[in-house]
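Reviewer 2 asked us to include a model.

Predict the structure of this chain.
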Amino acid sequence: FLQVGGATRMPCLDSSEFLGDLGRFGPGAPASEHPRWVCELPLLQLLQDFFMFFHNVFRWGYEVVSVRLGRREHAADATCFSELRGRLSVRLHIEDPFLRDRNLHCALRQTNEEVLWAEISKALSAMQS
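Predicted model (structure tokens):
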């Protein structure tokens, strides 16, 4: 959401840069080497934008949340997600940026995913009223 949404535009970082001591941003890296990013939006606006993105913009069940790519892509895109398990099921798809075959929707049962969607919808309605 922060990488693809409106004014926020969080940078996309190569996940290999964070792997152990060899990564550029690993535990031994000096703070001056760490990437910098600042979000100027007030927290309440950021939260509302989050709910709006996942309720109205993101194509739940058809797109993949990919921190690794930092852009919206269709789950059926074999060039980006050939390794992603369960990508063709109509569910929330969140790609693990380090284990590219792992779809983090595995942490949610389908019924919990439906509850999550309903709660996002309720939160957005409450914030807009």
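Residues 93 and 102 are 10 Å apart (CA to CA). The helical segments are 43-57, 78-81, 110-128. We have added this to the supplementary material.
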